[in-house]
C-alpha cells in the first residue's frame, strides 16, 4: 500500500513537471506578429521590442493586430539566435531585437558557430554612442593625453567600464588605441565592473583613471560637474553634452555606436523582408519614436536594408580582428 | 511566494503600463517600492514552512525557520519573521532619511580592495554553518565556488566550465541553484520517506509568539538591522551577504544559543538584516544613481525616463519622490505586519496539507519558478540535476548553506580581488591601506577569535 502511494506520488510529481513544461511551450506560441527580445524584461533588447516595435508599430498601424513580445534570454542573445536560425528560419511574422552587443558576440564567434549571414539584418533606429570620461580633477584634458598615457604607461593607466573583458565597453577603448597606432593592445589595463554605474564609482573615488561607456551613462555626472568627458565616439556633437568633443575632432576617426535594431529569419521572401525594412524605416522617421528615443537617452542613428547589412558585417569584421589579436575569440 | 518570480519581472512588466497611463513619478516609485518590498516577505513563508527559499537571502531564514517548523513551531517562526522584517524595515527607513548623503560617501569609498576584505570576513561566517563537520562545510562551499565559476569570466573574457554549451556562457542563475539544491532535494527526500514519517513534523503546538520571545530577540533584530543596512548601502554586496553576516554574527555573540536547531533569533537575524539591506540599497540608487540590485536597476531606468535625476540634490529637487518613497516603505511595512500576523495561522495550515497534494504542488512551483527566470527549459533541467546532487549531499550530511555562500561569494571575492590586484599592479598592500580595510580586518579577527575568548573567560569565571 505504501509502495503504491509512493509510486502515485512519483507519477503525480512527474506529471506536474511535464504539465508545466508543456505550459511553457504553449506560452511561446506566436500570435500574429512577434518580437523576440533575447534577454529578460527590463534591458535594452526588451526595450527595443516593447517600445519601437510593439508600441510604435502598433500605434502607427504598420502591423496587423498587436505584436507579441517574447523574452528569450540566454547566452547573451545566443539562445534566441540559435532558436531563430534552427527553428523559425522561414517565419515571416518574426522580428528579433539586436544591438551592437549582437554584432560583437557574432564577431567573437560565441553564438556556437552561427554566422551573421544566418539571418537577415533589417535596420537600426537609434544608438547610444560611446564616450570616454575622467574625473574632473584628472590630469588628462584631451583624448590625446589619455592615448599618450596608454602608449607610454599602460600598466599604470586603469580604465574601467561596465562590460566584461572583450565586451563592448572594452572594445571601444581598444578601437581608439588601435586607431592611435598603439601596437600592444594587450597591455591596456581594462578593469571590468558589473555595470556602468559601479564602474563610475571608481572614477568618482579617483581609484581609476578613465571610464569607458555610453553617453547616456555620463550625462548626469557631467551636468553635476563631477567628471570631464574626453571624447564622444559619435560622428557629430550631441545636444545632451554640447561641450564634449568628438574623437574625430581630436584626430581619432572612431565611431562607437551601440545601435538598437532588428534582424529577421533568413528564409523569408524578399518581399516580406522589404516590408520589414519599410516598417522599421517608418518607425525611425516618426515623431513618436523621436520623442520616445530621446527620453530614453538614445541618439538618432538610422541604417536600413542593404546598407545596414554591410554596416553590421563591417562591425563584426572589426571586432573579430581585435578579438583575435587579444585572444577573446572563442574557437 | 513563487520561487523565481521576483520583483524584477513584476516591475519591468508594470513599467510600460504606468508610463502609458501617465501616472505621476512619485506614485510610480511608491508602487515599485511596494512590490519590491512585499515580495520579500512571501519568500520567507515558503522557506520557513517548506524549506523552499525563493531568494538567496531567504535561504538563511530556512535554516532555523524550517527547523522550528519541524518542531511544530512554524507559526512562531512566521510571526518572528514578520516582526523582525518590520523592525529591520522600519528602523532602516529612519537611517535612509537621516544619513543618506553621508552613507553615499561610504559607497563611493568602498572599492575592490574593501569588497575583497568584506567577502573574506563573510567567508569566516562559513564555520557558523558547518552543523558539525567543518570539512563537509568546506567541501560544500567549494562546490558552490565551482558553480560560481561557470560562465564567461568577466575579468579575462575566457569561458570556464561551460563545456562548449552556449546555455552556460552567462553562468547559472542564483535562484536556479537555490531551487535545485533546497527545494527539489527536499521533494526527493520527502519521496524517500515513509508516509508515517510525516508525524515527524510535529503538530502545530503554539501558534502565537510570546511577548518574551519578541523582547528576547529584539537586540538581535536591532543589531542585524544596523549591519544589514550598512551592507545594503554597498552596491556590490546586497541582502544575501547581509543575511549571512547577521546570522553568523548573532550565532557567535549569543551564548547560549540553539542556532541551527530552531532558534527563533536565527529567524530574526536574517529577516531583519535582509529588509534593512533592501532599504539601504536605495541610497546608492537615489544619491549616486548607481543601482545596488537588479530591481533597483529597473527602478533607476524608470526614474530617468520620468525626468527625475538621481543625485546628491535629489532631496532638494524632488522631495516628493524621496519622502513619498520613505513614507510608502513605512506604510508598506505596517501593512505587511497587519496583514501577516493574523494570517500566520492560515499559512501554517499549509503544513497540514496531505503530502500527496502538497508535493506535486511544490514541484510545479519549482518548475514554473525556474522556467520563468529566463524562460529557459535548460534551467528546469538544471534544477533537477542540482536537486539530485543536493539529495545525495543531504543524505551524506553535507550542510547546504555553505554551498549557497560559496555561490554568492565566489564571483564577488574573485572579481574584486583581481580588480584590486590590477589597480595595485600585483601588490597585496592594497588590502591594508584604507581605514575601511583595517576596520574590516579587525572585525574579522574579532569574529574569528571572540567565541574562543568568550568561552575561555567563562571557564575562568567558573573556576
Quick overview:
Chain A has helices at residues 2-27, 44-59, 78-87, 100-107, 143-152, 168-179, 196-204, 215-223, 270-284, 287-295, 305-326, and strands at 33-37, 67-71, 94-99, 119-135, 158-161, 189-192, 210-214, 227-233, 257-265, 303-304.
Describe this structure in words.
- The complex is a heterodimer of chains A (331) and B (463).
- By secondary structure, chain A is α/β, with parallel strands linked by helices.
- Chain A folds into 2 domains: 165 residues, D-Maltodextrin-Binding Protein, domain 2; 123 residues, D-Maltodextrin-Binding Protein, domain 2, CATH 3.40.190.
- Chain A contains 11 helices and 10 strands.
- In chain A, strands 1, 2, 3, 4, 5, 6, 7, 8, 9 and 10 form a 10-stranded mixed beta sheet that branches.
- Chain A is globular and about 55 Å long.
- The N terminus of chain A is likely disordered.
- Chain B is globular, with a radius of gyration of 22 Å.
- Chain B is mostly helical and 463 residues long.
- Chain B is 73% helix and 1% strand.
- The longest helix of chain B has 36 residues.
- Chain B has one domain.
- In chain B, strands 1-2 form a two-stranded antiparallel ribbon.
- Chains A and B meet through helix 1, helix 2, helix 3, strand 6 and helix 7 of A and helix 1, helix 4, helix 13, helix 16 and helix 17 of B.
